[in-house]
């Protein structure tokens, strides 16, 4: 759509937003983010800001004449609610339709030939225009009149134009905060979540949840975004955008990635404390291709088969080098086994290194380890090991730097153990461990 077709180009033959939401829910996805406007500038909701919207096309007019909704954003939000997943919106800041540097021969002389306001040197204020679109979206309501809650606003910073447009991120943030208090704002570097530095669903082993720049400052490069900045000024964890196929939009000559490829993506993204946003595009019918849905289901089956093998249970014996104030009930090592995110093991306030040991109820073959900091109080740990022991002899199976919200260490081969030992080697404050888990089978 970069060639700026008229809205009649939007003509799905069997649009079904319920099919999207049900497919994602069945595949274990927590939510979906709909592209309400991509770089081309065409709006998928009934906006008052432009004629360049699907509502101006034949498909929408025919649906409205038949008494059906043509507001795809509202339709998708209702479907997400119906199937119990969260709903978010992608609204591209770059707008080719309003960018004077981008040719639009197909629109010349039509009602879509609108003023070119994108750019600091144009007549008109694109920030005001974008703010109006953003306001419309964050105040959308279901058919029953209740407000549609958004869990994330994705404000892509990409641009393929030389036009310079300075965005008023503070204004956009205030609009979001004033209408969707629970929504995250994603941008190249925040304000709430940052780009991970690539579009392939992975990050490097060391990943900090903070950075030290805002959207208004010089952008970090991809490598800097992957690593983050330890003890940075702003809490801005990474989110990775990746694709189930090779391209971002549906193409008939492409096939979905293999389940093994998606599982590797999961381990190198979610397993390294980074949220995964997987692009799953509808085809020209307006539905997710069946082969893509089946791939997502098999992906879930493989995740479940891997993750649903916990070996550590609350009844196991856990000991530690120290416990804050000697209060084992509130800060004891057994808290890492109780499955509750609000509890944690903490050593004495003046200690930043220490040892936690968990004795298993037999000898097991362990092939993965999961670790979590009590992230509500920050990311503190910068060095740790996990050792597997059998009858007093230990072997280091994990050697990590950053920990953070959750780390999943998939071992290259299984290791025998009847005891696990977590050693905190470096932390910038008293380390707080929320969870320790191991996966595998009993010998």
From TrEMBL:
Keywords attached to this entry: Glycosidase, Hydrolase, Signal
Organism superkingdom: Eukaryota
Is the keyword Oxidoreductase assigned to this protein? Answer: no
Which PROSITE patterns does the annotation name?
A: FA58C_3 (PS50022)
Checking SMART domains in the record gives: Alpha_L_fucos
- List the EC numbers from the record: 3.2.1.51
Enumerate the SUPFAM superfamilies for this protein.
(Trans)glycosidases, Galactose-binding domain-like
Keyword Signal among UniProt keywords: yes
UniProt domain F5/8 type C: residue ranges? 299-441
**Which InterPro entries did the record assign?**
FA58C, Galactose-bd-like_sf, GH, Glyco_hydro_29, Glyco_hydro_29_N
**Entries under Pfam families matching the protein:** Alpha_L_fucos (PF01120), F5_F8_type_C (PF00754)
Which protein family is it in? Belongs to the glycosyl hydrolase 29 family.
Please identify the protein, giving its name as recorded.
alpha-L-fucosidase
State the organism named in the record: Paraconiothyrium brasiliense
- Organism classification, top ranks? Eukaryota, Fungi, Dikarya, Ascomycota, Pezizomycotina
